[in-house]
Design brief:
alpha/beta; 3-stranded mixed sheet; binds fe (ii) ion; Dehydroquinate synthase-like, alpha domain
């Protein structure tokens, strides 16, 4: 067994009303200046909590300007605002984009060097500003991961920052914040979380320390995603999805994802398809590609989904992939690249771009060549 290190937020608060605990903890901490990154729709939901913070004498500077997945321009623009404000706490309350941005703002508020100099794994070695995150979707698991992904406008690719310093000091997972999220966004963010669990479990770096969480995440998400999309105000499936997403996020640190994510990134770069949706389109196709090398892992995933273990491991694995494909379809998500508006003429360029994501392709159970990537995209057309 290999040795891995699992870094988690210093404090994880999970359950309905967790957002109230964020307020209590911040007030009792004695910190006085909160730079809050969020979205207008979220501010409406947390109005009471924001008032409580401000009534306690804490100054809250709110930025809701992020509209899409964050770019380096967004980081620099919001960083300038944060440096002027000089926060002692950065809070990210929102989806994965908001939390990823908040992580980098917390690190670089007190740094002078260009943010781009720190792209990569282990390049960030310090953070002086307290960082708290609260997800409002059940998707990226960013509240528990050491990752932040930023779009680079200069070369049209996504760049990843990976460091234990990007793990929040405290994470507050309040499933009620996701209530009312549209069925469509619920579906693709949920498939992103499912992909984290699948790709960290069926992975060259998979480890028993995270396997249990990943499998449980797969069970929770596959049992509850459709329910959450059918009734967007039902708290019960939201609780399960939030937990599954958290488990996936915890697994991302020591293991990280593999070929699905590597092939998904170019869809976001060139076509601005949301991260979760890109994964949702590609997940079944990449699983089919991996089948020969991942038979046992995928059979275990099928068991976690609840498929009766009464046949060969290969057939179990195939049934598991079919179940996941059906789930994606039943959730109303596009199931081909064509459905998502991607043209045949883009495939070669996207494949070359995907091959650059070696840090994730290297994790894949089956070796992936440029020709393989082109073939997978063509199957997915
Ligand atoms: Fe993801």
């Amino acid at each position: 067994m290999t040795t891995i290190s699992l870094y988690n937020p210093g404090n994880i608060t999970f359950g309905r009303g967790s957002i109230d605990q964020l307020v209590k903890d911040d007030i009792s901490s004695g910190r006085k200046r909160v730079f809050l990154i969020s979205a207008e729709a979220v501010l409406v939901k947390i109005k009471k909590q924001l008032n409580a913070l401000q009534n306690s004498g804490i100054i809250v500077h709110t930025d809701t300007s992020l509209q899409n997945e964050p770019s380096f321009n967004d980081v620099e623009r919001i960083l300038a605002e944060a440096r002027d404000f000089m926060p002692d706490t950065v809070a990210g309350i929102g989806g994965g984009s908001v939390m990823d941005l908040a992580k980098l703002i917390a690190v670089f508020t007190t740094f002078k060097e260009p943010v781009k100099n720190y792209v990569g794994s282990g390049c960030i070695t310090e953070r002086r500003t307290h960082l708290v995150c609260a997800p409002t979707t059940a998707g990226t698991g960013s509240e528990a991961s050491p990752n932040a992904v930023i779009f680079d406008e200069t070369d049209n690719t996504k760049k990843a920052f990976i460091s234990p310093w990007l793990i929040p000091d405290a994470a507050y997972i309040d499933p009620s914040l996701a209530l009312g999220l549209s069925a469509y966004i619920t579906a693709y963010t949920g498939i992103d979380a499912l992909t984290h669990c699948i790709e960290t479990f069926a992975n060259k770096k998979a480890h028993p320390l995270t396997d249990t969480l990943a499998l449980k995440g797969i069970t929770l998400i596959t049992e509850n995603l459709l329910k959450a999309t059918k009734n967007i105000q039902d708290i019960q499936p939201r609780i399960s999805l939030s937990l599954g997403s958290l488990y996936g996020g915890i697994c991302l640190g020591p293991v990280n994802t593999a070929a699905v994510h590597a092939l998904a990134y170019p869809l976001g770069n060139d076509y601005k398809i949301p991260h979760g949706l890109s994964n949702a389109i590609l997940l079944p196709y990449v699983m089919e590609f991996n089948l020969g090398a991942a038979e046992e892992k995928y059979a275990a995933i099928a068991e976690a989904i609840g498929i009766a273990n009464n046949t060969t491991r290969r057939i179990m694995a195939i049934k598991g992939i079919a179940h996941i494909r059906r789930l994606i379809e039943d959730c109303g998500l596009p199931v081909t690249l064509h459905d998502a508006g991607i043209k045949t003429s883009s495939i070669e360029k996207m494949a070359i771009s995907a091959m650059e994501v070696k840090r994730l392709l290297n994790n894949n159970l089956k070796e992936v060549t440029l020709k393989d990537v082109i073939d997978i995209y063509q199957h997915a057309l």
